[in-house]
From TrEMBL:
<comment type="similarity">
    <text>Belongs to the glucose-6-phosphate dehydrogenase family.</text>
</comment>
<dbReference type="InterPro" id="IPR019796">
    <property type="entry name" value="G6P_DH_AS"/>
</dbReference>
<feature type="region of interest" description="Disordered">
    <location>
        <begin position="127"/>
        <end position="159"/>
    </location>
</feature>
<keyword id="KW-0560">Oxidoreductase</keyword>
<dbReference type="GO" id="GO:0006006">
    <property type="term" value="P:glucose metabolic process"/>
</dbReference>
<keyword id="KW-0313">Glucose metabolism</keyword>
<comment type="pathway">
    <text>Carbohydrate degradation; pentose phosphate pathway; D-ribulose 5-phosphate from D-glucose 6-phosphate (oxidative stage): step 1/3.</text>
</comment>
<dbReference type="InterPro" id="IPR001282">
    <property type="entry name" value="G6P_DH"/>
</dbReference>
<dbReference type="GO" id="GO:0009051">
    <property type="term" value="P:pentose-phosphate shunt, oxidative branch"/>
</dbReference>
<dbReference type="InterPro" id="IPR022675">
    <property type="entry name" value="G6P_DH_C"/>
</dbReference>
<dbReference type="GO" id="GO:0004345">
    <property type="term" value="F:glucose-6-phosphate dehydrogenase activity"/>
</dbReference>
<protein>
    <recommendedName>
        <fullName>Glucose-6-phosphate 1-dehydrogenase</fullName>
        <ecNumber>1.1.1.49</ecNumber>
    </recommendedName>
</protein>
<comment type="function">
    <text>Catalyzes the rate-limiting step of the oxidative pentose-phosphate pathway, which represents a route for the dissimilation of carbohydrates besides glycolysis.</text>
</comment>
<dbReference type="GO" id="GO:0009570">
    <property type="term" value="C:chloroplast stroma"/>
</dbReference>
<dbReference type="InterPro" id="IPR022674">
    <property type="entry name" value="G6P_DH_NAD-bd"/>
</dbReference>
<feature type="domain" description="Glucose-6-phosphate dehydrogenase NAD-binding">
    <location>
        <begin position="191"/>
        <end position="369"/>
    </location>
</feature>
<feature type="compositionally biased region" description="Polar residues">
    <location>
        <begin position="143"/>
        <end position="152"/>
    </location>
</feature>
C-alpha cells in the first residue's frame, strides 16, 4: 500500500512508528494519522512477527527489546527512541509499536504496509502539522458482487459505497471523546425478534457481558424489535431476568446492570412494515444525535422472515453516514437451492461485507484455539495429515431433547441443525492448509478449499436415529414425537452419524467421522484425533492383541469443562515393565482462572468491529450445502426411517457399524474417554 502525504508534512525525513491493532492508544503527540494497516506479507510469514489475533489477550508475544531486535533482523532501521508516545492498552489489542522505515521523497510517496486492521500511525514530523493521509486499500478477495474501491483513511467500502470507518478513534471515544474530524460515532444494536428464545438466552446476556467488560463503545444503544407489545420498561424487566455477572467479576454488578438497562429500548412493529422501520429509524436517530451512526441488526427471528426484515432495515432504517451490518442466524436455507435463494435475496439489499452469517460454534474458545494449537506448535503441524492421523471424530451430543423447539426442529432435523454447519465448520478449520495470514479472507479461502475438496455425502456413509420415550428411575422421558408440535409420524432425525472424506493430498483416505444427537446420555462437544499405530512397536507385547488401545489420541473438548488432552502410553512406575494410558492434560479450569466468554460475546464484538473471520462467507455456505443436499433429498424422498434409540442412551447401534466399516471406534464410547 502506498501512503501519500501532502505538504507541509513532507518534511519528515525518516522513521515512524506504527502501532498495530491498538485502537485505544492514547497519543498526545501530533500529528496522528489513522490508517488501516497490516504488515507486508513477508513480515506476516515470520511467525514471530505475525500480529496477534485480536482475541488473544494479555500475553505479549515478545518483549519490546526482542521485538526491536527481530525487526532489525529483517532490516528495518532503528526507530527513534524518542518521542514514543505512552501506550495504553486495551485488552484485546496488541500494544507494542512496530517500527518501520518511512521515507518522504519528493514524490511524497511512501511504500508502507498493506492493511485492513485499525491502528494509528504516528509520524515524527518536524513541523508538527496535522496530517491528511489518503490510503489506497489493500485488495481483498471478496465475494462476487462486492468490490473494494480506493478510499481515504477514514472511509471503507460497505454498502457498496465508501463509508466512514468505525475506526480506532471511535474506540478511543471510550476514553477520549471526539475523533480528529470532530465527530463522535455511535453504535446502535437492534435485536430483531427481541421477545424470542435466543435473544433472551444468549444475545442480551452477551451484550451485557461486553458492556460489563468495557468492550462496547462509549456511545451505544440497544433496541429490541418484535411484534409483541412491550414498553421500554417491560423490555428492561425481561432482559434483567436473563442477565448475570461473570463469576470472576461480580464487582458493581448491580450498578452495571442498571447502567446497561438504561441503554436498552424497545420498538414494537411488524417485520414486513417499512413504516414501522421508519419509526424505528426515527428513534435510533434521536439516540444517535449528530454522531456518525453505525447500525448493527441481529436477526434473531425465524428464517422465513429474514428477507422482509432485511428489506425494511435496508430501505427504511440503515445508517446514512456510517456502516450498517446485519447478523443473520442459521438456518441459512434448507438445502443448496433455498440457501442460494436466501443469499440472492439478501444481496438484493446488502453487500456481502454487510452480511454476518453466524455459526456460534466458530465463536467457541476451543474451536478458535484449533488454529493456534496447530499452527503455533511444532509438535502438531507435522503430524497433521494422512501420514500420522488415522481418523478424526467430531462429536456433538446433548442430554436433552428438542424441548420447546420441536416446531422448528421438525422441518430441519439434526443434519441441518448441527452437522451441515457447526460440525462441518470445525472440519474445515481442522483440515485447512496454512492460510497466508490471519486475515478473514485468507482463512475463509482455505476453509472453502477444504469444503470443495470433500466427497459428497452418500447414504451408505450415514446412519440416522430418533429418540423414543424412556422411563428411568420412575421418570418418564418423552420421545421426540410426543412433542405436540411434532407430527406423530415424523421421520426427522434427532441423531446422525456420518463418514466424510477430503479428497486432497493431505487427507486422502482419512475418515472424518461426525456424530450429533439430542437426548443422549451426556452433553458434550469434542474433536478426537486418533493417530496411527507405532510401526514396529517395541512394546507391543504390553498391549496384548488390541493395538488400537495403544494409539495416541488427541482430544479437544470444546464443552463442557474445556480441555485439550493427549493420550499417551506410559510406564507404570515400579520395577516391572507395565504400561498404561495416561493423559497429558491441559484442563482449562485448572490452568486459567478467567471464565471463558460465551461464543455470542466474541461474535457480537467481532461484528461491531467488522471482523469477519468467524462468520461464514456465501461461497463457504454453498460448498457446505453442496455436500449435504443430495443426501438430505434422498432421505426425504425415500422416507428413510430413523433407528429409534431410548432417551438418555448412547444412540443407535448403527453408529458403531458405520465406524467399524472404516475400522474405527468411537473415542467417546470407550472404557476410558
Ligand atoms: N433458540 C436457540 O437456541 C437458537 C436459535 N437459532 C436461530 O435463531 C433464530 C431465533 O431463534 P429463537 O429465538 O429460538 O426463535 P423464536 O421462535 O423464539 O422467535 C423469535 C421471535 O420471532 C417472532 N416470531 C416467531 N415466530 C414467528 C413467525 N412465524 N412469524 C413472525 N414472527 C415470528 C416472535 O416474536 P414476536 O411474536 O414478538 O414478533 C419470537 O419471539 C432462528 O433463526 C433460530 O433458528 C440458532 C441457534 C440456537
Ligand atoms: O445451533 C444450535 O446449537 C444448539 C447447541 O449450542 P450449544 O452452544 O449449547 O452447544 C442446539 O441446541 C440447537 O439445536 C442448535 O440449533
Amino acid at each position: 500500500m502506498f501512503l501519500y502525504m501532502s505538504d507541509p508534512l513532507v518534511r519528515v525525513r525518516y522513521a515512524a512508528c506504527l502501532f498495530l491493532l491498538d485502537p485505544s492508544l492514547s497519543l498526545s503527540w501530533p500529528p496522528r494519522i489513522e490508517i488501516e494497516i497490516r504488515p507486508p506479507r513477508n513480515l506476516l510469514q515470520s511467525p514471530s512477527l505475525r500480529p496477534r489475533s485480536k482475541t488473544q489477550t494479555n500475553t505479549r508475544l515478545f518483549s519490546e527489546r526482542e521485538r526491536r531486535k527481530k525487526l532489525m533482523a529483517v532490516s528495518f532501521p532503528k526507530c527513534p527512541s524518542s518521542p514514543l508516545p505512552p501506550l495504553q492498552t486495551r485488552n484485546r489489542a496488541w500494544s507494542s509499536p512496530l517500527c518501520a522505515p518511512i521515507q518522504v521523497g519528493d514524490s511524497s510517496k511512501w511504500a508502507l504496509f498493506e492493511t485492513t486492521k485499525r491502528c494509528h500511525l504516528s509520524v515524527s514530523a518536524t513541523n508538527g502539522g496535522s496530517a491528511v493521509a489518503p490510503v489506497e486499500p489493500s485488495k481483498k478477495i471478496q465475494d462476487s458482487g462486492t468490490k473494494t474501491t480506493p478510499t481515504d483513511h477514514s472511509t471503507k467500502v460497505e454498502n457498496g459505497v465508501p463509508q466512514t470507518v468505525f475506526s480506532s478513534n471511535e474506540f478511543q471515544d471510550l476514553k477520549t471523546g471526539p475523533n480528529d474530524s470532530g465527530r463522535e460515532s455511535t453504535v446502535s444494536i437492534t435485536v430483531v425478534g427481541a421477545s424470542g428464545d435466543l435473544a433472551k438466552k444468549k444475545i442480551f446476556p452477551a451484550l451485557f457481558a461486553l458492556y460489563y467488560e468495557g468492550f462496547l463503545p462509549k456511545h451505544f444503544t440497544i433496541f429490541g424489535y418484535a411484534r409483541s407489545k412491550m414498553t421500554d420498561a417491560e423490555l428492561r424487566e425481561m432482559v434483567s431476568r436473563t442477565l448475570n455477572c461473570r463469576i470472576d467479576q461480580r464487582e458493581n454488578c448491580d450498578a452495571k446492570m442498571e447502567e446497561f438497562l438504561k441503554r436498552c429500548f424497545y420498538h414494537s412493529g411488524q417485520y414486513d412494515s417499512e413504516a414501522h422501520f421508519v419509526e424505528l429509524d426515527k428513534k435510533l436517530k434521536q439516540h444517535e444525535g449528530s454522531r456518525i451512526s453505525n447500525r448493527l441488526y441481529y436477526l434473531s427471528i425465524p428464517p422465513n422472515i429474514f428477507l422482509d426484515v432485511v428489506k425494511c432495515t435496508s430501505l427504511a432504517a440503515s445508517s446514512e453516514n456510517g456502516w450498517t451490518r446485519v447478523i443473520v442466524e442459521k438456518p441459512f436455507g434448507r438445502d443448496a437451492e433455498s440457501s442460494a435463494a436466501l443469499t440472492r435475496g439478501l444481496k438484493q439489499y446488502l453487500h456481502e461485507d454487510q452480511i454476518f452469517r453466524i455459526d456460534h460454534y466458530l465463536g467457541k474458545e476451543l474451536v478458535e484455539n484449533l488454529s493456534v494449537l496447530r499452527f503455533s506448535n511444532l509438535v502438531f503441524e507435522p503430524l497433521w495429515s494422512r501420514q500420522y492421523i488415522r481418523n478424526v471424530q467430531i462429536i456433538f451430543s446433548e442430554d436433552f431433547g428438542t424441548e420447546g423447539r420441536g416446531g422448528y426442529f421438525d422441518s430441519y432435523g439434526i443434519i441441518r441443525d448441527i452437522m451441515q454447519n457447526h460440525l462441518l465448520q470445525i472440519v474445515a478449520l481442522f483440515a485447512m492448509e496454512t492460510p497466508t495470514s490471519l486475515e478473514a479472507e485468507d482463512i475463509r479461502n482455505e476453509k472453502v478449499k477444504v469444503l470443495r475438496s470433500m466427497k459428497t455425502l452418500e447414504i451408505d456413509d450415514v446412519i440416522i436415529g430418533q429418540y423414543k420415550s424412556h422411563t428411568r428411575g420412575g421418570v418418564v422421558y418423552p420421545g421426540y414425537t410426543d412433542d405436540k408440535t411434532v407430527p406423530n409420524d415424523s421421520l426427522t432425525p434427532t441423531f446422525a452419524a456420518a463418514a466424510l472424506f477430503i479428497n486432497n493430498a493431505r487427507w486422502d483416505g482419512v475418515p472424518f467421522l461426525m456424530k450429533a444427537g439430542k437426548a443422549l446420555h451426556t452433553k458434550r462437544a469434542e474433536i478426537r484425533v486418533q493417530f496411527r499405530h507405532v510401526p514396529g512397536n517395541l512394546y507391543k507385547k504390553c498391549f496384548g492383541t488390541d493395538l488400537d488401545r495403544a494409539t495416541n489420541e488427541l482430544v479437544i473438548r470444546v464443552q463442557p469443562d474445556e480441555a485439550i488432552y493427549l493420550k499417551i502410553n506410559n510406564k507404570i512406575p515400579g520395577l516391572g515393565m507395565r504400561l498404561d494410558r495416561s493423559n497429558l492434560n491441559l484442563h482449562y479450569a485448572a490452568r486459567y482462572s478467567k471464565e471463558i466468554p460465551c461464543a455470542y460475546e466474541r461474535l457480537l464484538l467481532d461484528a461491531i468491529e467488522g471482523e469477519r473471520r468467524l462468520f461464514i462467507r456465501s461461497d463457504e455456505l454453498d460448498a457446505a450445502w453442496a455436500l449435504f443436499t443430495p443426501l438430505l433429498k434422498e432421505l426425504e424422498e425415500k422416507r428413510i426411517a430413523p433407528e429409534l434409540y431410548p432417551y438418555g442412551s448412547r444412540g443407535p447401534v448403527g453408529a458403531h457399524y458405520l465406524a467399524a466399516k472404516y475400522n474405527v471406534r468411537w473415542g467417546d464410547l470407550g472404557a476410558e474417554h
